[in-house]
What we know:
Blueprint: H1 12-18, E1 28-31, E2 45-50, E3 55-60, H2 83-101, H3 109-122
Parallel strand pairs: 1-2
Antiparallel strand pairs: 2-3
Amino acid sequence: MRSNWKTPFFYYKLKKKNSFKKNDKQTVYKVKDRNYRIFKFMANRRFEIYNGKKYKNVIVRRRMVGLTLGDLSHTRVRVHHLRRKREKMRAKKKKEELKKLGKVKIVDKEKIAAARRKRKSRK
């Protein structure tokens, strides 16, 4: 975290070099340094921010002024525990394969519900 008494970190040669024009929204600025502070002149611009592995495409908006570019491109990968999901998908694939082979009969849900109603009415 940069202390408050220092000026916000920004490489001003980037501003001169790329010349942020008022109506130039198509230019994509590639940035590797994630410490850059976002200023008003950077609003409505496209940036490709390097997160250590790849460049993430970000459009800077007015409400983002004051943040750093690092706040917009996360470096850590979220861990999703997908074991249950995978098992469900595998079971679904097996059913589809069996349907293709003709080993599983396709039954309407309405017929099953009607049969259950008949059983209940007998009791």
